[in-house]
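Fold this sequence, please.
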Amino acid sequence: MDVQPGILDRLPEPDAYLANAAAAVKRAHEKGIPVIYVVVGFRPGAPEASAAQQHVASRLIDPHPAIAPEGSDVVVVKRRVSAFSGSDLEILLRARNIRHLVLAGISTSGVVLSTVREASDKELKLTVLSDLCADYDPEAHAVLMSRIFPRQATVTTCEKWLKTL
């Protein structure tokens, strides 16, 4: 979620993050697991973005090219922080009878937190890949992964998750 140029580029080690994300996407494809990209995006002129969001609205649309969607992958465009807010994600999940989400994204205290909370309210089973979530505040990331997310999700690493497939 939100692995887009302009967001990813603010991480201290974006290349390492992308390599791990690409491995997870590749393995999901090999196992026939649907891959859904969630991105922040706005219509031309960003009429749904407030004045405070206008600086971001013009440069966010596509997932990072290093993990570009392929084949039957779906790109969900959201308008706010949660992957569900202002998007058709819930409709896509229901149409495909998907009840378990494996979440990763930037930032842990933003899109990941908001999506975990909303997905939990929708009674979806959740797995959060701790090393494929990143935050500009390492302390917030650590607290969310160790104390908050485990209440609503299984928190694991990408490597451990890949071994279960």
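The helical segments are 14-30, 54-57, 89-95, 108-121, 138-148, 158-164. DSSP finds six helices and five strands in the chain.
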